[in-house]
Design goal:
By secondary structure, this protein is mainly alpha-helical. Helix content is 58%, strand content 5%. The protein has 29 helices and 11 strands.
């Protein structure tokens, strides 16, 4: 590869107008209005929406934007300053949260922006950043395109998550995706604790990527909005909207082409996975569908990863012919800041960045174009990874093991009836189609440039390859190695959109032609959606490989259709010269939108099987949550609770499925021993989620407080472990009658009793 050579430079035709269009604020206002309307429609209190909006603007965007303006060399667009500024504000807020909570002053966290606002108001050199004139104004179409992606994805969130998951359960039959209560419990711990302990086992260190949950806690502390409302209503749509805008501005910055951003945003948040196993669970996992709310830390990590990609790319080398001004030396500070934030945002982020940089260094070394910049970036990323491994994760592997192609090998078991080569070829093809089809623009870019990539393209390609490569090299009991592919996807969609825009520029369609292409793409997506809704894929028994066959047949049918249309296009182009040279663009468009039914099918499945569908769900009765909420309102943040409830269910062999988190989640307090399955030391152990608790003596003393309480036993829990409250789930087992004489009954409903130790 030649690091800077370009095989066939194309004319940029998407430069935005120099003058601001009238009513330039309307796309942003419309996007926010729709988001707000959806949140209000699903029961979000208006006062909470106003408070959270004020917090996001005044406590995140404003201080962060001021710092970003002081760091970057020259202004470019207002939307970039605000988007990057929001991310800088989130990282600064994380530092402020750690300081305030560590000294027991979490309720004063709302003061933290003064550290930024006062210097920028007083010092003349900083005061100028309050008002900035921008040389470039975004085109109206560009802004409306991003707003449309935000609106569309908000609709997806409404259908798949917001309308199916209440903030507080309303019935005894309520169910909830099993991970949500655990995630809420971590956010609850972060309201009063740093560093965090495992909420379900008081005093057990939480070696985990918990930065996103700290942000949830900080937003609740500052805005005054109740944490469950932040978690189940406000944060996920806000993070997703910010991620959409970030894809837009980062795509523009790294490529120098404005429309790379909206195209990349559409690929990431509008087009879904190509094939469904049963309408809910994806074959190899998903990129954005389900995961943005099922694991919101992934969304938070994208928010930090996307500007990190831009800052690293700025130091590696700007795109040829780009009119986007460099970030300047301040990009180094952004790299350090965003690497630090990414370490605890998601464990998959920094390894993919590190691998992308190593790939870039190798490519530039082979072409003798390696400078000191890339090795220095490698060292910074390596230092960040070492910090995360040693400090945040304490060298815990969380069940991760090196097991090449495990994620594919599980589909080859029991397939003796098929030729082994065909099984492996079909499995690999299904993996690429399912998770990587939206990156077809990368192949187009490589083909057009004859593999002679610019430095920044080499970096993006490295990340796009590193994500699925790490995924396939590892095994995890919960398939969490998928998150590496999701981190790499942020790189891939940027490069894929770049390839699409270059192909589109080459085709040089007229305005009428672009409209026709857009209408045809939308019609094709609607047709595919209608077909898949009309003929859903039923769950398949037998070898897992059989689950891949519907996807492979569907791909074969579409490939045959593409071949027939290609021949027809070639014949028509011989007589209608306007078609010549444009078939590749039409084909690439069709390939990129082939997964468009994904989001619609996911919403349809969520309506049929709410709260996680085929994924594990936990019972979340309203009576349990009522008891936990009472404890939250009547206890101190440092109080420790004890409970007799530990098991989501008792298995047939008598073992305990210890994925029970309702008390720590909704009480926002540490529990002496609740459900221990997600404690880092338990992940990957034999027995899985039913592995026994590691301290059986502690568990025995905990349970004795309910079954055979004594004054000495309760005093030990109080004095040695800080237990102040006993929470009884009477459906598990009624408490001993003797408990009423040893502790004060303070709350009871149809199922829960709460005692305060004397």
């Amino acid at each position: 590869m030649s690091g800077l050579a370009v095989a066939d430079p194309v004319r940029p035709v998407d430069a935005p107008p120099a003058r601001a269009p009238r009513f330039a604020f309307l796309p942003a206002l419309a996007g926010y209005a729709v988001l707000a309307a959806v949140l209000l429609a699903v029961g979000t209190p208006l006062v909470d929406l106003i408070a959270y909006t004020g917090y996001a603007v005044g406590w995140v965007v404003v201080p962060g934007t001021l710092v970003f303006r002081a760091v970057r060399s020259r202004p470019f667009t207002l939307v970039e300053d605000l988007a990057f500024g929001a991310v800088v504000g989130l990282v600064l807020e994380l530092v402020a949260w750690a300081v305030f909570v560590a000294v027991g002053a979490g309720r004063w966290l709302w003061l933290w922006p003064l550290v930024v606002l006062v210097p920028f108001a007083v010092l003349p050199r900083l005061r100028r950043h309050w008002w900035v004139r921008y040389p470039v104004r975004v085109a109206t179409g560009w802004a409306w395109a991003l707003a449309a992606v935000v609106v569309g994805f908000t609709g997806y969130l409404a259908g798949s998550f917001l309308t199916t998951t209440p903030v507080l359960p309303r019935s005894e039959g309520q169910e909830q995706y099993i991970d949500l209560a655990f995630q809420l419990s971590v956010a609850g711990a972060a309201t009063h604790q740093v560093p965090l302990d495992v909420p379900q086992v008081a005093g057990e260190p939480l070696h985990y990527h918990w930065f996103g949950f700290a942000q949830l806690a900080a937003s609740s502390l500052v805005s005054g909005v109740d944490l469950p409302t932040v978690f189940f209503r406000l944060a996920v749509p806000a993070w997703c909207a910010l991620a959409v805008v970030l894809v837009g501005v980062v795509g523009w910055r790294v490529s120098g082409r404005a429309w790379v951003g909206p195209v990349a945003a559409a690929l990431m948040f509008t087009v879904g996975e190509f094939g469904f196993e049963n309408g809910v669970r994806q074959l190899f996992g998903t990129q954005a569908t389900f995961i943005v709310w099922g694991s919101p830390s992934m969304t938070y990590s994208w928010v930090l990863l996307l500007p990190l990609i831009a800052a690293v790319a700025d130091r590696i080398g700007r795109a040829r012919g780009s009119a986007v001004p460099a970030l300047g030396p301040g990009a180094w500070l952004l790299v350090v800041l965003l690497l630090a934030g990414s370490t605890g945002a998601k464990a998959s982020s920094v390894p993919v960045v590190l691998a992308a940089l190593a790939f870039t260094a190798a490519g530039l070394l082979l072409t003798r174009r390696l400078t000191w910049t890339v090795p220095l970036l490698v060292l910074l990323a390596l230092a960040a990874q070492l910090f995360a491994t040693a400090v945040l994760f304490a060298f815990a592997n969380h069940g991760v093991a090196i097991d090449p192609f495990y994620s594919l090998r599980v589909y080859t078991a029991g397939t003796e009836a098929y030729p082994p080569a065909a099984v492996w070829a079909g499995t690999v093809l299904a993996f690429l189609l399912s998770l990587q089809l939206r990156l077809a623009g990368v192949a187009a870019l490589l083909w057009r440039r004859r593999f002679r990539l610019e430095r920044v393209q080499l970096f993006l390609l490295g990340g796009a390859l590193a994500g699925p490569a790490i995924h396939l090299m590892l095994r995890h009991p919960g398939n969490s190695n998928q998150y590496f592919t999701r981190a790499g996807f942020a790189f891939g969609v940027l490069l894929s959109a770049w390839g699409f825009v270059e192909v589109a520029d080459r085709a040089a369609l007229s305005r009428r032609g672009r409209v026709a292409l857009g209408v045809a793409a939308a019609g094709f997506a609607a047709l595919l959606t209608a077909v898949q809704l009309r003929y859903p894929v039923a769950p398949t028994a037998g070898p897992r490989f059989d689950r891949l066959l519907p996807l492979l047949r569907w791909a074969g049918a579409l490939a045959l259709l593409a071949l027939l249309l290609g021949v027809l296009w070639w014949l028509l182009a011989r007589h209608w010269r306007g078609l010549a040279g444009r078939g590749g663009l039409v084909l690439l468009t069709g390939v990129l939108v082939a997964g468009a039914p994904g989001l619609v099918l996911d919403v349809a499945a969520a309506r049929a099987q709410p709260n996680g569908g085929a994924y594990a769900r936990a019972s979340m009765p309203a009576s349990l949550v009522e008891g936990a909420r009472w404890v939250h309102g009547h206890s101190a943040p440092g109080d420790v609770l004890a409970t007799n409830a530990h098991c989501r269910q008792v298995l047939r062999d008598g073992r305990c499925d210890a994925r029970l988190f309702w008390l720590s989640a909704y009480a926002q307090r540490s529990v002496l021993v609740e459900g221990w399955a997600f404690a880092p030391r338990m992940v990957g152990l034999p027995g899985g989620v039913a592995a026994p608790f590691w301290d059986q003596d502690l568990l025995r003393r905990n349970d004795a407080a309910f079954t055979a309480p004594t004054a000495a036993g309760l005093a030990e829990l109080r004095d040695w472990y800080g237990v102040r409250w006993l929470v009884v789930d009477r459906q598990v087992a009624p408490e001993s009658p003797a408990l009423a004489g040893l502790a004060d009954l303070r709350f009871a409903n149809s199922r829960v009793a709460v005692y305060r130790l004397r």
